[in-house]
Design a protein that fits this description.
Chain B: It is found in: Membrane. Chain B: One of its GO terms (molecular function) is NADH dehydrogenase (quinone) (non-electrogenic) activity. The complex is a heterodimer of chains A (227) and B (321). Chain A is mainly alpha-helical. Chain B has one domain. Chain B is built from eleven helices and no strands. The chains are: A mainly alpha (227), B mainly alpha (321).
Amino acid sequence: MLAQVPILQQWLLLLAAFVLFSSFVLLAQARLVSAIHAFAWQGGLVAAVTLVVALAEQSSHLYFSALLTLVLKALLIPWMLHRLTRRLRIERETESLRRPALAIMAAVALVIFSYWLVLPMVEQDLTFTRNLVAISLAVVLIGLLMMVLRQQAVAQVLGFMSIENGLFLAAVSATGGMPLIVELGVAFDVLVAMVLFGIFFFQIRDSIDSLDVDRLNRLTETPEEGP
Amino acid sequence: MADLVTPWPWALVIAQGFLCAALAPWLVGWVRLIKARLQNRRGPSVWQAYRDLYKLFAKEARVAHTASPLFRLAPYLVFAATWLAAAIVPLVVVNLPTAAIADMIVLVGLLALARVFLALAGMDVGTAFGGQGASREMLIAALAEPALLVAIFTLAMTAHSTNLASVIDYQLAADIIVRPSFLFALGGLLLLAIAETGRIPVDNPSTHLELTMVHEAMILEYSGRHLALMEWAAQIKLLLYGALIANLFVPWGIATDLSVTGLTLGLVAIVVKLALLGAALAIAETVLAKMRLFRVPDYLNLALLLALLGLLIHVILEVGT
């Protein structure tokens, strides 16, 4: 039962639950700036999970990767996204999902699906963090769902970044973190991806005068039927 | 179990029921007082709610000539159902003889019964406002009730019982541990309590503006003792949700035996908990603005999501460990 679990692991479960909740917030948040804040919170929570795992397993390199996650995903990338939205003048942009309740229920279904996928692994009784794998898989799938459902390019990038958060969480919880060199490489990749996305935003806006990527589906320059 | 048939616990059951009814106006008066202070007003005294009820009981009850017998009957039914629901929630002491019927699903059922008659009474006279209020109340109720049940099932799955007394006993027996599913259920239940008791941001209890009122619209045609019963029932409902949240999630202090010290401590504990919850409610009502009616489904969706996440997190994270 939960009562026998040490206090650090209880905190771990709590933080993991909040990571999952932040994924839902990210999915349903209409205002772009608030979505970026939600993403920053998710990054901070993932960093906290890493820190708790580091404390529990006494592995020194996880301290470093917790710090890296905090700086990169909770501070640097949200700040870059903020600056981009300011420069693109879309800070006040809101973009609501067409059927928010349905999207949320789809995300709930994804959580159940990922739990079902992880079930054989849970029965094998690997490590104490095995339950977190289901949560991280759910975060990955919800990030994918977000990229499918959202039309706004910045929101899709947020979905992509939260997929990365989910993968990182899976790595930390299932294997006690990747080797440091891999982690540095991934962090650098994410940073480069962010810079490239920024350039893409400007390109997309220059060519179709909006960041609504659904408009990229149209090939001909037919007159607009409305916004 | 032998002492359960003695008259003493049953006397306590009745005393606790009357205490519920007696404390309810105090809670509403307390929330009003804190709200007034936050708005830089002196505000009425805490006892004003009692004076209002007394005044209404003394007045003559007028009934519209288009009203059916249901209109006269509804206040008594609403009051009785709400009071019974409140009386089975452990308030001061847990494990009374009524614990056997203190099932959470029964509780939701009793509240639904009260709500059905409230809505019927609203539509009975045939005025536009009554029907409008009833329709809005049903919109809120239809969305809130499933979420309420899911939040309750989260607790029930942890304690392996839908009985309120068993859940409280389970909580008291367990060590103080961090339980993510309870946090989510608490969040969902707080949102639902606000929606169900008609407080800001879902409904404003102190307005008669036709665009926004929900609960007030349904009882607009009532006067005198009928109105007093309806208002009292609403106050008891607020107390019920307060006691439910306070005793399910923070049960420490509630009396577990029938000793005098235990009972006194239980009484003090519940009054302090309700005062804190009431103050929190007053602060929330001051900070938040009432939302449009069409935003209410989104709000209740959030409550449902929190409750569902609590359930899922319980299954994923807490069962296996």
